C-alpha cells in the first residue's frame, strides 16, 4: 500500500525522531562501557533500553502510516559519539564528562521532541506517543542533572 501525501509529513517527522532515538540508544550503550560508577552504568543501561522502546513505538507508528522506517541513526549522531570518545579519553573525571554529554544529548532531545510535537497536534495517536516520550526524556534530563550535581 502506498503512503498518502497527508501521511508523508507525519512519517518524515517520525523518521527524524526514530533516528534520534537510535542515536541516543547507541550513545548510551557507548558511554555505559566507559563509565566507572556502577549506579551510573545501570542508569545508562536503563536509558538505552528506554530509547530502544521509543524506537520500537515510532517504528510501529511509521508502519501504521504505510511508511518504511529507517534502520539506523544519523551521521551526525555517529560524529557526536566519536567526539564523546575523544572528550572522555582526555577528561580526568570520566563520569562527570559522561554526565555532561548526557545533559547535552537530553537537552537536544527535549528540543527536538518539542519542535516535532507541535507539528503532530492534529494526529491524536501520534501526538500521545510523542508527548509521553517527551515527558520521559524531560524526566531523564532532570535525573542526569541531579546526578551531575552529586558527581561534582
Automatic annotation (TrEMBL):
It comes from the Bacteria. Signal peptide: none annotated. Residues 10-119 form the DUF2383 domain. It holds the Pfam family DUF2383. NCBIfam families: PA2169 family four-helix-bundle protein. This is PA2169 family four-helix-bundle protein. It comes from Mariniflexile soesokkakense.
Amino acid at each position: 500500500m502506498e503512503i498518502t501525501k497527508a501521511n508523508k509529513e507525519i512519517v518524515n517527522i517520525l523518521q527524524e525522531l526514530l533516528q534520534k532515538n537510535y542515536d541516543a540508544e547507541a550513545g548510551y550503550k557507548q558511554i555505559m562501557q566507559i563509565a566507572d560508577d556502577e549506579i551510573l552504568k545501570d542508569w545508562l543501561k536503563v536509558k538505552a533500553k528506554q530509547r530502544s522502546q521509543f524506537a520500537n513505538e515510532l517504528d510501529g507508528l511509521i508502519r501504521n502510516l504505510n511508511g518504511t522506517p529507517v534502520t539506523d541513526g544519523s551521521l551526525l549522531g555517529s560524529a557526536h559519539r566519536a567526539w564523546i570518545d575523544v572528550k572522555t579519553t582526555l577528561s580526568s573525571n570520566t563520569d562527570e564528562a559522561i554526565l555532561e554529554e548526557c545533559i547535552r544529548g537530553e537537552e537536544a532531545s527535549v528540543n527536538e521532541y518539542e519542535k516535532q510535537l507541535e507539528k503532530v497536534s492534529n494526529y491524536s495517536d501520534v501526538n500521545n506517543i510523542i508527548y509521553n516520550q517527551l515527558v520521559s526524556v524531560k524526566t531523564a534530563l532532570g535525573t542526569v542533572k541531579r546526578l551531575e550535581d552529586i558527581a561534582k
